[in-house]
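Please study the protein below:
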Amino acid sequence: MMKGKPVKDSEQKAYLGGKRNMSLPNIPNITPIISLERCETIDLLLSSIALEEIGLSNILNAEAENLQAFLNTDPNNLNDYLKINESINRTLRAVVKSQILLQFRLEDIILLDRDTCCEKCPSQDPDECDEEPPCPDCLDRYYPCGCDDGCNEK
């Protein structure tokens, strides 16, 4: 549509895709029923972090291959070296930022896991544990120092 020229109704319809008024999209009402236990949710969160780590490692590997291909061309121009250095530096900075966020997420998930007892011994006390020797979950909670002589150091 040109500015200053009167617009015919047919031109306006063609411009708007044959419709005079734009409408909101029709979004179907989807209400999935997903039932996850707390421990399953924690496992899924840990899996998502692991998958993101794999993705970041693939990015780093691609950058390494990119650098090797660049060096194999035997460039003679200093500007080419500076450009590839800047490109790799930006990529590494982005990966490090993602790593920091993943570390924060992992620490939060570990705190969630400590607050719940996912598939662990219900007694949480080596004296009452049915397993012989007591299971590692009971020992870890009862002896946080790592020893098993009952000192209860923290």
Summary: DSSP finds four helices and no strands in the chain. The helical segments are 9-15, 38-72, 78-115, 136-142. The chain has a mean pLDDT of 76. The first helix runs from residue 9 to 15.
